[in-house]
Design brief:
Blueprint lengths: L2 H15 L5 E2 L2 E2 L2 E4 L5 H5 L3 E8 L3 E8 L2 H8 L8 E3 L2 E7 L5 H8 L26 E3 L2 H7 L5 H4 L6 E9 L2 E9 L3 H12 L4 E6 L2 E6 L2 H9 L22 H38 L18
Antiparallel strand pairs: 1-2, 3-4, 4-5, 5-7, 6-7, 8-9, 9-10, 10-12, 11-12
Length: about 300
């Protein structure tokens, strides 16, 4: 490949990798440079796509793009993302005199921002006694080993598409690590429960498709486990009508008229179809055509 083609390919790939726009609100970009994943888990399990740091003069912003919102959510809880914000499937951080509406500017400026729902496992973790910024989202064995090495990956079985969230608690009896793992089916959670129960120093239970594991003093662990119970969540994604549907006499009368009109149309169609078929048969006989359906064979069996 010639040198010009190589340079062209590099230029195109660089242009495609650009994240920050030339102008962010009223701020013009000064320079930009690519950045990598902030941690090993980001690169291996969270679905890191690309990252870029941009200098807008008064401040510098860094955006890391992930394959989906779940990966960005997991990355936003990672210690390496302290002080950052999540914007859809991006994790954004800023240094300097940052705009107050940075989240809105990033949402409107970054390419292919996803607004899908975030994972809901956080809602199962009790808030009482939880240590600040101790939550972590687990999507694979690397994150599991980094954050809660007491639980082996073989017990979690990530091949099932398992996802988990952990948090650490301060209790009168001592520190406790509480983890909630979500499985696609309750039967999968039931299958893996004995693996969790065999972990030394761990207490585990199953509730629906969730397996809840607490590692720490037994009394405190049992109390935390009792507070976690699965509840099905139904999301309303359609806006209900502002006014409830009312059946008025006028609308009831219109409905009856519509039914009678439809019945009349059907009767007229049947009548016209019958006349058309009868007329065709009559014309066929008149021109000498006689089908099998028009003939009849009579058998005289009186004397037999």
């Amino acid at each position: 490949m010639s040198r010009s083609l190589i340079l062209a390919a590099v230029f195109v790939s660089s242009a495609c990798a650009a994240i920050w726009p030339s102008k962010l609100g009223q701020y013009a970009i000064k320079s930009a440079s690519p950045v990598g994943a902030g941690s090993q888990a980001e690169g291996e399990e969270f679905g890191f796509v690309t990252g870029e740091r941009a200098d807008y003069g008064a401040f510098e912003v860094t955006a890391s793009q992930f394959k989906d919102v779940t990966g960005a959510y997991a990355a936003s809880l990672d210690p390496s993302a302290k002080g950052s914000i999540r914007v859809g499937n991006y994790v954004v951080s800023c240094e300097g005199k940052c705009p107050k509406d940075l989240a809105g500017l990033a949402d409107a400026s970054l390419p292919h921002v996803s607004h899908a729902a975030v994972p809901t496992l956080e809602s199962y973790l009790p808030s009482k006694g939880q240590l600040a910024r101790s939550e972590r989202y687990i999507l694979g064995p690397t994150g599991l080993k980094t954050n809660v090495a007491e639980i082996p990956a073989s017990a979690v079985k990530f091949d099932f598409g398992t996802e988990g969230q952990i948090a650490r608690y301060r209790t009168p009896d001592g520190p406790v690590a509480l983890a909630v793992f979500s499985y696609p089916l309750p039967s999968m959670a039931r299958q893996q429960l004995p693996e969790f129960q065999n972990i030394t120093g761990a207490t585990a239970k199953r509730t629906g498709p969730l397996v809840v594991v607490a590692i720490g003093p037994s009394a405190a662990s049992a109390k935390l486990l009792e507070s976690v119970n699965y509840e099905g969540v139904v999301e309303e994604n359609e806006k209900p009508p502002e006014k409830p549907l009312e059946l008025k006499p006028e609308s009831a009368g219109k409905m009856v008229l519509a039914i009678l009109s439809l019945a009349g149309l059907l009767l007229a169609f049947c009548l016209l179809s019958g006349l058309a078929v009868g007329g065709m048969l009559r014309l066929a006989r008149r021109f000498g055509y006689s089908g099998a359906e028009g003939s009849m064979t009579t058998l005289h069996l009186e004397g037999k």
